[in-house]
Design goal:
TIM Barrel; two-stranded antiparallel sheet; 294 residues; 12 strands; eight-stranded parallel barrel; alpha/beta
């Protein structure tokens, strides 16, 4: 069976995210290791690292992955932003390493004032530099398929294949697929035929063995909108059927499937509460769909 979980807040310290995951009955977990909207990261105290790793080990939650900062753009044409982004990416990779995480999810980047082809080349160049700088690093780099807003790269399977090809198919790089992004990018996974065609195409172009993580999100926007707006499971343009197919697809039976659906609106509530009520509701929905598919 897939390992269900969610992206959870690190408010109050990284170990609190594990407490929230346990209380929410998560089997897998995604976190930020720092503020996603800031370049600067606070230093991780050794006692916090030790406590986080101990709580993860005691909980049996596995895998735990991080999502990197939204500011990072290694496809940027402007050299200062690209260099700053690569330095931040390496720092986030190091944080994932010290925390014992399995992977680091990242949006490939946006080509801004350059071209799509040049942007893909720069992404591969940046990742090659990271992999060389951290030759013994354990966390996987997980390229997230995107919705395709603006000049975002990674919304076509061919983009992901190009990056992987420029990296000589490195086994240290995997893919994270997001159900909302798939639909928004134009891959109609709503019908049984559309679902089958989408994953046949992915397997032909990239290879389903590259998929290491799923993000499970419904979409506020329709197929091909190229607008990234997450919705609660079954409440958007996807509906329930695609999630049931995914949850019961034997090809993905052992993979982590993580919610990134909207949280309770009040940040203060998210900091204090171990269980977000929307996460609890969405996880119940997913588990019900999984049982129905048995």
């Amino acid at each position: 069976m897939p390992r269900l979980g969610a992206h959870l807040s690190i408010g109050g310290g990284l170990p609190r995210a594990v407490d929230r995951a346990v209380a929410s009955r998560c089997e897998a977990l995604q976190i930020f290791t720092k503020s996603a909207g800031q370049w600067r990261a606070r230093e991780l105290p050794q006692d916090e690292i030790v406590l986080f790793r101990r709580k993860v080990a005691d909980s049996g939650i596995e895998p735990v992955v991080a999502h990197n900062s939204y500011l990072i753009n290694i496809a940027a044409a402007a050299l200062p932003l690209r260099e700053q982004s690569l330095a931040a990416l390496i720092e986030e990779y190091d944080r994932a390493e010290v925390l014992g995480l399995s992977g680091l999810v990242m949006h490939p980047g946006s080509y801004t004032t350059g071209t799509e082809e040049e942007g893909l080349r720069l992404i591969a160049k940046g990742l090659r530099a990271l992999l060389r700088a951290r030759r013994r690093g354990a966390p996987l780099i997980l390229l997230e398929h995107t919705a395709g807003q603006g000049t975002n790269l990674g919304h076509r399977f061919e983009h992901l294949a190009t990056i992987l090809g420029l990296l000589d198919g490195s086994p240290r790089v995997g893919v994270c697929l997001d159900t909302c992004h798939l639909l928004s990018a134009g891959y109609d996974i709503c019908s049984a035929d559309g679902y089958a065609r989408t994953f046949e195409e992915f397997d032909r172009i990239v290879g389903v063995d590259r998929i290491k993580v799923f993000h499970l999100n419904d979409s506020k926007k329709p197929c091909g909108s190229r607008v990234d707006r997450h919705e609660h499971i079954g409440k958007g343009c996807l509906g329930l059927e695609p999630f049931q197919r995914l949850l019961t697809d034997p090809r993905f039976a052992r993979l982590p499937m993580l919610l990134e659906t909207p949280k309770l609106d009040t940040p203060e509530s998210r900091r204090k509460s171990d269980v977000d009520p929307w996460d609890a509701r969405n996880l119940r929905t997913l588990r019900r769909l999984m049982r129905k598919g048995d």
